[in-house]
Amino acid sequence: MQVTKTKPPKADGARQTNGERAVDATAQPAAKAALASDAKERLIDAAELLFAELGYASCTFREIAGRSGINQGLLHYYFGSKQNLFTEVFLRRARVVASHRELLLDEAVARHGAGRVPVEPLVRAFITPALSMAQAGPGGAAFVRIHSQLRSEPGDIGLELRRLAFGASTQRYVKALTAACPHLPKKVVYWRFNFMVGSYLVVSSQGGRLEDYSGGSCASSDVESALAQIVPFAVAGFMAPAPARKGG
Question: How many folded domains does the chain comprise?
Fold first, then answer.
């Protein structure tokens, strides 16, 4: 009679084969990496809310660790300094806004042709991603407040971060707006572009002033209304004639 040999079941703690050890060896680092990634994201999320609430100068690692529930030592391990942490916090969402702007500009160029996009779709494509981010939960609203605060932070950190995040997309929009406004010198386009940026930051930062002086009839959190108002406002600014020169 032929006897079929079968492998006996391994007892708990039995020696593993080389293949089994290989699986475990890859699973353990992957699990550790996932835990590290989760901890880092929790720290960035907590820092984002606190930077928006307290400002860059007043926010401390101790407060971020307390808000996140993660040991303060990991903040130093992952980021090294508060400036490095702030950079990661800002760039995480700023790059999303910039990419969204570039996508909308690409779509507008596909519809109208390069150098032929009218002012209105350019303004709408530039402003919409920022106002949309303001509605992307508490973190999105916090990012917009941080962006608004960044313009008044001392030193070069704000300028460098905005240049890093938005430099390429800003240059594309300025070029397109210059082509769409042949009645304006390029210097005037720069000024009016800056006014447009300032206006959407005031609206999207939701400081409560609009609600205050409108007696509650307007809400900066109403993105559809904000977009409906700010787009024609900015378009009218770009379409207005250049100011007369002094003494001219």
Answer: 1
